[in-house]
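User: Study the fold:
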Amino acid sequence: MAGLRDVATIVSLVSGLGFMLIGVCGIVRLPDAYQRLHASSKCSTLGLLGLLTGAAIHIGTPESVMKAVVTIAFAFVAMPVGSHVLAKSAHASGMRQWESTLSDELAEDLAGDQGGGGAGS
């Protein structure tokens, strides 16, 4: 049983570290702040999931499992919301997108609202 627990711990930790590594590569390689923000938020959320799951499996006490579950739940709510707020703030301050970006839906929505043809009209 201890061997299976060790294998599950190693798999969880390696998957968490793998997601973190993918996030770092995304931050370094992607062309603009919006795409970097997307890479960092997705990979840090999933990386934290793997790392905390591995720690909870390894420690194995009910307290550690509960702390890991609460931290994961908070991270899955807070990280995407924080990334959204940062991206919206960057957009509002006029940060330019990569020239090959296909669309800017937020700018299109804002332009539509100013034209008076919103959903409530």
